[in-house]
TrEMBL record:
Domain RSE1/DDB1/CPSF1 C-terminal: 953-1203
Residues forming coiled coils: none
One GO MF term attached to the UniProt entry: nucleic acid binding
Organism listed in the record: Heterodermia speciosa
Protein name, entry field: Cleavage/polyadenylation specificity factor A subunit N-terminal domain-containing protein
Length: 1305
């Protein structure tokens, strides 16, 4: 008997690429700074973010502008967040327009603290503070909530905080709530001041607590505002429902006593039946009054302390009706409220509240203190084009600004809106939202059709990702998934940039704007850009910067003089005094390269390389503008160069100036300073670049406290970093090598952040950054240009870019930090980099007038085919009927580069969308409404089919549907066949060909072979073959195989058909040689509710996703096998169900370089969920998995890596074993949590890794094995050697881990 082949042990590494954009709460809070900054806390499903609203007045726009700046985030809760509130001093009205940035003292806590309740039954208190190194860090403390037997009775669903922060209440959905007495903020500040390091044990806001039991479901809970005479009383209102009755229950506590004295005032007061399920509970600032918001009216309650509360109703039915038909037949409801900051004398007389409705309608309410009546203005405050849920807040920006509303969209894009009285609201900036993400398509980046040099392989395989997102007639979108740093364009000017070779930008003191020097091969021009958004103005002709020669280098002196170096002259001129000017013309020579550096120590130093008949030369000079005359002072002698230079650069490194000269031979020469006067002209080091066309064209440096790097852009489209070391002379050590494109790489330093440079090559525009930690590899982040007015803005190739230099001390007024300029195609853009050094999702949005459900990229059509549903209202004009909602399936053929412009939403007769052309003209795009449909028919999906008959290839589109009947008849389905073609103008047409009626819905179709189709019909799988050779063509009788449940996704691999079923996971079918048999080959050993799968033939693996939020790796059984069950290689868990799995190639700089790490595969897997999160999946070999599992088992016990995990003696979760040694007994252990490992690397790297290996376990966390540091260390290095880490150093393991954890996007 043949021996059964042993399958390899495989693990899986998962990490979060993009967090879900869903925002549950937006809270104005000051939890990171003592000065009054305009901070907002965004509370997501399992993380929080602090963002600052940056606002400024502009001269060329009506009113101010505002956008969100990322500050810090926290995503290590390892649990979902249920609710959130703010403790501390309430924010007051401030007339200041621009808050001064007063630095906080080290270890000083802010005036407010954030309280969170987690699904892991914990309450967390946290704030951010600045440490002694001025780094922003989190300070937190958690407390375990009382355990409950069921989730509805688990505390944490509701949080309420007393207006004076004396008490806090946490309630469950039903049964009980706990009341906490809180410490005053002054006591908390004293606790923090006495802490050593970050000892959270001394940070404890809770004094004592008491549990209250209630009989019923807790609907709402809030603390009421006491009257001015009730100084010590705390009032808590709880709304409880039981047996279709709802009561108001009020509790009172004197804060001078213990919580034992807290009690309920009286038995609950019933509310009317139309208020049994209130949408909102709003406590008013006026003596314990409150509001209940219902569907059709608002009720103001007063006097609940002295007896049954009295009420006054205000009708809401006359407010604005929904403008859009929406996706529901129900009327929209009110979802959130926000209080407005006003003057103290105003607050004492009335309360002001905004109410938001889910369809975007916002109401402004004024409640009078004397009459407790709502002052009705008769109209809604505004209509936002946003779906609103609970993430809604207001912010005050100063007396010169109006109310700012911050709204996070629900299945739509949110935004920041300024509300001006009696005027239409104005959108300032958007808050991206790309949910729900139901389908995803991947396509390769287009390469130039004619290119002189062979295209680099890594560049050729670059990919783009698109997803179907949004819902409804005004929010449906096709979103391009882009991840990087946002470059927000604030000025866009048409300019022919095709001939531009380089640009330089300087803050201009004469015009108070920015002067941009633009160089082309034949001349140089100068532009003036206003300091604020406005029109382009001509340059001052008196400056005389224009010339008929190409500018090679430009710079500023310490006094603000502009220096230009052209091929024929050196020009130095003042922008304030036209008489101060120096022109030094070249005689019998021409400048080939130049560099200018200005430092406090050496002044303005100029390096030039020149070409004469006799050869090439290098010389250096100092430019002095501090005297009456401008002087060009030579430094040292002219030096002969053996080869023509390609570039030259002066760099100040660790207080000394060095000169770098690249040669056309592929060499790099280094010249260092000989004495205190200036650089000497002596070669101190020579480096040779390797590879074809490896000629250095540009140079920049990254300077850090401990290390410096030289970044060289090469002519062959690559970039090399060299480590700099000064040991008597400059030494260059090759560090990393990256492939970016096919043409020369331009490198420039970032004056704002010295640890990074900016790179541009072909379509790549990115940053390259090294961190202060020496063990980090270079981090490359895309720079993605955005235009707030053009959501579908497609970034072109960057031909030249520059940062506005601000050497002069008095010329920076009115300029934002980080101003950048670039030539992009035919546009000249001014933009600013937002978000610091943190990458984030920057979606490119292409609008649809409906809800997209499926999309696929057609290589043949070069179009994205989108299936979406439009809601059409069919009205009866004769009888004036309100109309009937009809779902209309529609196809859009989208050019992914030109994008789509949203049509007029008020014109329902408009059946077409438009594409945006480069010349801003519009032409019709392909949006085709399918007429072949039945009542109740829903289009489920589509697939392309290319039946082949000899040399004839037909292009078909197969659409599969489900038909739902009004009566009790069973659902049926159809297959619709269309032929596709594209004309010379790029327009795609569809022609209906055939219908196949099915007795059950078809949920999946896949082509097989040259002329066969595989499709599902209920639990049956059909193999249907079209005989093209016969005349006339005919369909053979189908081959049918019945499975346990219906197939929802198919894929083909040779003779095998992989079928994901709705209730029985994966089945693999085999097609016979003549396409006339269909047999079950093998299947999953367990039944799972399947969604999708991805075949990985190279690993002999199929990954399936299930509705329970897991993916399973199933291995193909060997030919000699015992059973037909597919062995399970691993099971990985995710917060949400995976809807799509796609293979994607890694970026070119990860594939074509020679970084110090090696990666197992040139591609990775990305997975998307309906909530918009993206995850990366990598398959691990056994040796790599064992080392990472060993590290993970130790890391999850460390408080810096997993601060909110309970002690292991209290844990009963079998997924978190107390053994360190990796085991394959549970397939869930085969998952490696990449997010946890990233925390380890980011929060300490080598130091923290050494600590988790060598430290002794905390009490109660003792390991079952390797319980001594020596035993753990020995086993650790054994596993490291098996994984390929040859050097027994923690730094080598850190390098290896960073290579595995590099993001694929």
């Amino acid at each position: 008997m043949a021996e059964v082949e042993k399958l390899p042990v495989l693990g899986v590494l998962t990490r979060t690429l993009v967090k879900s954009p869903v925002i549950n709460f937006i809270i104005p809070a000051r939890i990171r700074h003592t000065s009054p900054k305009n901070d907002l806390v965004f509370v997501r499903n399992d993380s929080i973010e602090i963002k600052e609203v940056i606002s400024r007045n502009t001269e060329h726009k009506e009113g101010p502008s505002a956008y969100l700046k990322d500050i810090i985030d926290k995503a290590d809760f390892d649990s979902g967040i249920r609710s959130a509130r703010i403790l501390g001093k309430a924010r007051e009205f401030d007339e200041a327009e621009d808050y001064q940035d007063i630095p906080s003292k080290p270890m000083e806590i802010p005036p407010q603290i954030l309280a969170l309740t987690l699904e892991s039954a914990k309450i967390v208190f946290l704030c951010a503070f600045y440490d002694w190194g001025n780094h922003l860090r989190w300070l937190s403390r958690y407390q375990i909530l009382p355990h409950a037997q069921s989730y509805p009775k688990q505390l944490g669903e509701h949080i309420a905080v007393d207006p004076k922060s004396r008490a806090m209440a946490v309630a469950a959905n039903e049964g009980s709530f706990v009341l906490y007495a809180l410490r005053p903020m002054d006591e908390l500040k004293e606790q923090v001041e006495t802490m050593v390091g970050i000892q959270t044990s001394k940070f404890d806001p809770i004094v004592h607590e008491r549990i209250f039991h209630v009989d019923g479901v807790i609907l709402k809970m809030e603390f009421l505002h006491p009257s001015k005479t009730d100084i010590n009383e705390v009032y808590l209102l709880v709304i409880v429902a039981k047996k279709q009755k709802t009561k108001l229950r009020c509790y009172v506590w004197d804060c001078r006593t213990t919580l034992r004295q807290a009690s309920e005032l009286r038995s609950g007061q019933p509310v009317p039946d139309d208020e049994r399920l209130p949408l909102l509970l709003i406590p008013l600032r006026m003596s314990t009054a409150f509001i209940l918001v219902s569907q059709e009216h608002i009720t103001v309650y007063t006097g609940i302390l002295i007896g049954p509360a009295t009420s006054r109703k205000h009708d809401l039915r006359h407010y604005k009706a929904p403008e859009q038909s929406g996706s529901s037949r129900s009327l929209p409801i009110f979802t959130q409220w926000a209080r407005v900051l006003r003057y103290d004398d105003h607050v004492s007389k009335q309360d002001n509240v905004y109410l938001s409705r889910e369809d975007g309608v916002v109401l402004f309410l004024e409640i009078s203190e004397t009459s407790h009546k709502i002052i009705d203005n008769g109209v809604a405050a505004g209509q936002l084009n946003v779906n609103i849920n609970t993430a809604f807040a207001t912010l005050h920006l100063g007396s010169k600004y109006h109310d700012l509303l911050v709204v996070a969209g629900d299945l739509s894009t949110g935004g920041l809106f300024f509300f001006v009285p009696r005027e239409k609201e104005e959108l300032m900036s958007t808050i991206p939202n790309w949910t729900p993400m139901m389908d995803m398509a991947v396509t390769k980046v287009k390469q130039p059709e004619a290119f002189m040099l062979p295209i680099n392989g890594p560049v050729k395989d670059q990919m783009r990702v698109f997803a179907s997102t949004g819902r409804g007639p005004t929010h449906g979108e096709i979103t391009e998934i882009r991840y990087g740093i946002e470059g927000a364009i604030n000025t866009e000017i048409e300019h022919d940039g095709n001939a531009v070779t380089d640009i330089w930008a300087f803050h201009d003191r004469s015009s108070k704007g920015v002067r941009v020097v633009v160089s082309s091969p034949i001349d140089t021009t100068s532009l003036i850009i206003p300091s604020n958004e406005g029109e382009l103005s001509d340059a001052d002709p008196h400056i005389e910067l224009e010339c008929e020669a190409r500018t090679i280098a430009a710079g500023l002196t310490m006094e603000g003089h502009i220096v230009l170096v052209t091929a024929t002259a050196i020009v130095v001129t003042s922008s304030l005094d036209r008489r101060r000017r120096l022109v030094s013309e070249m005689k019998d020579e021409s400048v080939t390269s130049a560099s200018i550096v200005t430092s406090d120590t050496y002044g303005c130093v100029l390096l030039t390389t020149t070409k004469r008949e006799a050869g090439n030369y290098l010389k250096c000079a100092r430019i002095r503008t501090d005297s009456e005359e401008i002087v060009l002072q030579p430094l040292g002698d002219t030096m002969d160069l053996s080869t023509e230079p390609s570039c030259s650069s002066l760099q100040e490194i660790q207080g000394r100036i060095y000169a770098f000269v690249g040669l056309l031979t592929g060499s790099l020469l280094v010249f260092s300073r000989s004495n205190g006067v200036g650089p000497c002209l002596q070669v101190t080091f020579k480096h040779e670049f390797e590879g074809d066309f490896a000629v250095c064209d540009s140079i920049a440096t990254i300077n850090d406290e401990n290390q410096s790097w030289l970044v060289c852009g090469l002519r062959n489209g690559s970039c090399q970093t060299l480590g700099l070391a000064s040991e008597g002379r400059m030494l260059l050590t090759p560090f990393e090598f990256f492939v970016l494109g096919n043409t020369s790489v331009c490198v420039k330093a970032d004056e704002e952040q010295r640890n990074r440079v900016i790179l541009a090559c072909d379509g790549i525009f990115c940053t390259l950054e090294y961190c202060y930690e020496q063990l980090r590899l270079a981090t490359i982040r895309n720079i993605l240009l955005t235009n707030e007015d053009k959501p579908g803005y497609k970034q072109g190739s960057i031909r030249a870019f520059a940062q506005a230099s601000h050497r002069q001390s008095d010329g920076n007024a009115g300029f934002a930090a980080g101003q950048w300029f670039c030539m992009e195609g035919e546009n000249f853009n001014r933009f600013e980099l937002r978000g610091g050094s943190q990458s984030r999702m920057i979606p490119r949005r292409m609008y649809l007038d409906g809800t997209p459900t499926r999309l696929t990229f057609s290589e043949k059509l070069d179009r994205l085919i989108v299936l979406y549903t439009r809601i059409v209202i069919r009205r009866d004009p004769q009888h004036g009927q309100p109309g009937q909602r009809v779902l209309e399936p529609t196809f859009a053929f989208v050019d992914i580069d030109k994008g789509i412009l949203r049509p007029d939403p008020n014109s329902r007769a408009n059946r077409d969308l438009h594409v945006v052309l480069p010349n801003d003209q519009y032409q019709r795009a392909n949006v085709l409404t399918v007429q072949e449909r039945k009542p109740g028919e829903k289009y489920i999906g589509m697939t392309e089919w290319f039946p082949t008959d000899g040399d004839n290839v037909y292009h078909m589109l197969i659409v599969f549907t489900m038909i739902v009947y009004d009566d009790k008849r069973a659902e049926t389905g159809r297959l619709l066949f269309f032929s596709l073609s594209k004309n010379g103008d790029g327009q795609v047409s569809m022609e209906f060909k055939k219908i196949t009626e099915l007795k059950a819905p078809a949920f999946a179709v896949v082509p097989y072979g040259q002329s066969s189709l595989i499709y599902s019909c209920g639990p049956e799988v059909f193999l249907h073959t079209l005989r093209l050779a016969s005349k006339p063509r005919e369909w053979l009788s189908p081959v049918v195989l019945t499975l346990q449940s219906r197939g929802v996704h198919f894929s083909v691999s040779g003779q095998f058909i992989h079928v994901t079923t709705a209730a029985d996971s994966l089945s693999v079918l085999k097609v016979g040689e003549d396409n006339r048999t269909l047999t079950l080959e093998y299947s999953d050993e367990l039944a799972r509710d399947g969604i999708f799968h991805l075949d990985l033939p190279a690993q002999g693996l199929i990954i399936t996703s299930s509705k329970d939020g897991t993916i399973t790796g199933l291995q193909r059984p060997p030919p000699q096998r015992i059973s037909n069950s597919m062995p399970t290689a691993f099971i990985a868990e995710f917060p949400s169900s995976i809807t799509r799995l796609r293979r994607i190639n890694r970026p070119s700089w990860q594939l074509g370089g020679s970084s110090k790490v090696s990666r197992s595969s040139p591609e990775a897997i990305i997975a998307c969920t309906a909530d918009g999160s993206l995850h990366q999946i990598d398959i691990l070999e056994e040796s790599s998995w064992r080392l990472l599992r060993f590290i993970t088992n130790m890391a999850r016990r460390h408080p810096l890596i997993c601060p909110y995990r309970e002690k292991f003696r209290a844990m009963v979760d079998a997924r978190h074993p107390r053994h360190i040694e990796p085991t394959t007994s549970n397939k869930r252990f085969m998952q490696i949590d990449g997010d946890m490992l990233i925390r380890l690397l980011d929060r300490g790297g080598e130091r923290l890794l050494r600590d988790i290996v060598n430290h002794e376990p905390y009490e109660g966390d003792a390991f079952m094995d390797f319980n001594t540091a020596a035993a753990r260390s020995q086993r650790f290095w054994e596993l490291a050697k098996q994984a390929g880490v040859d050097v027994p150093e923690f730094s080598a393991v850190v390098y290896w881990m960073r290579g595995l954890l590099v993001s694929v996007i």
